[in-house]
Predict the structure.
Amino acid sequence: MIPTDPVFHKPQSIVAAKNILFSTIFLALLILIVCKITSGFGKLADVKVWTSAIITFIIIWFLTRQIGLGRKWARILLLVFFLAGTVSTIFTFMQILKANLLIEILFIMLILLQVLAMIFLFTQKSTQWFNSVQSAGSA
């Protein structure tokens, strides 16, 4: 028997966005590790940064899981976090550009992947899917 619940019929854009978001958690962790072992970037990978990064990873992971369950609020909250992160990235971007080439490339990849995930989450098919999950839940 094939389930008729809209959660089981995710559009490819939702699946892609989830996979990308999980990948960005790994990529951000990789960037922190590279910063930790790279000379001159020790302060970018201190205990406060690691603690806030782990908390951020947990929040992103939780929101990504909720998005997979069709929770529209999680998509909006992730967008808010993304926009806030974009503002803070503007202030740290010059430091990142002074980093070694590997950190620069990883950081740019991270930004591009996050933008791509946001695009996938707000496509017309994704929005229709979120709306159908919400209406099926309220029925």
The chain has a mean pLDDT of 84. The two ends are 21 Å apart (CA to CA). The first helix runs from residue 12 to 37.
